[in-house]
Amino acid sequence: MSQLASPITLTARERLLNALLGRPVDRVPVWLMRQAGRYLPEYQAVRKNYDFLQLCKTPSAAAEVSIQPIEIIGSDAVIIFNDIMLPLEAAGADVEFTEKGPRINNPVRSFEALSALRSTPIREDEPIVRTIQTVRERVGPDFPVLGFIGAPWTLATYWVEGAGSRNFERILGLRWSNPEVLDALLEIVTQVALDYLRIQIAAGANAVQIFDTWGSILRDADYERFSARWTRRIIESVRGMGAPVIFYMNGSAPYLPTLDTLGADCVSMDWRVSLSAARAALKTPASLQGNLDPLTLYSNPEAIDAAVADIFRDFPPRPGHVFNLGHGILQHTPVRNAQSLVEAVKRHGAC
Ligand code: 1CP
């Protein structure tokens, strides 16, 4: 912004943290949700040696794929390679990954199922701790490292459905037939998610993101009870630990008044609503993240440049914006286009 005419020199870590907290930056930083993943041949090359869960639990390999997007597409932050399902294992979930995504072989739909669970506490030496330390050794102290968890509601969705779902009949049915089971399950998943977040921050994550991917299947009137209050509890518990919290929900536009009450430092928007409209609807968070349609990356560098310029026309570069996609990068994204996006943000995002 013009009042920052005097040049400021920031490390990548300061740039991201300042942006998240609405403090002065030289340019808008950029990273991409799911930036470590199947669109990268280098990821595929590592992945073929491990099944997915094993890859998450092997710190040297997980650290390597976490860092790939920094080297290959020039992203301004590392997000630790892991998955939102991992902490559910400690709570007693039998988690498996198939071609179609996660599966939980002991779905919870009753108090009987809940009482059959065998749980162990999240350990201080979970593999993710070593992964974060290894990433830190490789990127140094001046590069930002992001940790993450799934929001309790999104975790409960997988656990009740047993897998991804089209209509979410089981969990939305349970909401009416036996909501107390949901309350009890949410209590359990909130605890493991919080513990999993704490060990990531203690290991050196500079900021953390909470993914409420399935929050928008709830009626607005139910969002407080089944999602917001649990997420708020997590955010309150990590406040003061020195890691800003980013909150992401797909389809969040109708829920913005509730999201305003979560206490997140940054709200990450999908592509359905402009950042200026989101800014106008929210009072509290210091910053916004998002909101490029991931399918933009199925086009070409010129179209991507124009789409980035469009976002900055609507929401001019300023402290308080972290550029990102509106949801995870898609598997068939050409690597060249992901690189073009990062270059375009660096070109257009000077503050
Ligand atoms: O075959 C493979 O290699 C597995 C594909 C894959 C990857 C690369 C899965 C299975 N998970 C991941 C990593 C992952 N998952 C990260 C890594 C860090 C990054 O680069 O961003 C993150 C942040 C996640 C988070 C995650 N997992 C979410 C929330 C984010 C979102 O996209 O909404 C969700 C919903 C999951 C569940 C999951 N795990 C994997 C898949 C394919 C899915 C989604 C399945 C579904 O749509 O229901």
Write the layout of secondary structure elements.
Elements: H1 12-21, H2 41-47, H3 52-56, H4 59-73, E1 78-79, H5 86-90, E2 95-98, E3 101-104, H6 111-115, H7 127-139, E4 145-150, H8 152-161, H9 169-177, H10 179-203, E5 207-212, H11 220-238, E6 245-249, H12 256-259, E7 266-268, H13 275-281, E8 287-292, H14 301-314, E9 321-325, H15 335-348
Parallel strand pairs: 1-4, 4-5, 5-6, 6-7, 7-8, 8-9
Antiparallel strand pairs: 2-3
The protein binds coproporphyrinogen I (1CP).
Question: How would you describe this protein?
Answer:
This protein has 351 residues and is of the alpha/beta class. 46% of the residues lie in helices and 12% in strands. The protein has helices at residues 12-21, 41-47, 52-56, 59-73, 86-90, 111-115, 127-139, 152-161, 169-177, 179-203, 220-238, 256-259, 275-281, 301-314, 335-348, and strands spanning 78-79, 95-98, 101-104, 145-150, 207-212, 245-249, 266-268, 287-292, 321-325. It has a seven-stranded parallel beta sheet with strand order 1-4-5-6-7-8-9, with helices on both faces. Strands 2-3 form a two-stranded antiparallel ribbon. The longest helix is centred in the middle third of the chain and has 25 residues, at 179-203. The termini are close together. The structure holds coproporphyrinogen I.
Essential attributes:
binds coproporphyrinogen I, single chain, alpha/beta, 9 strands, 15 helices, 46% helix, 351 residues
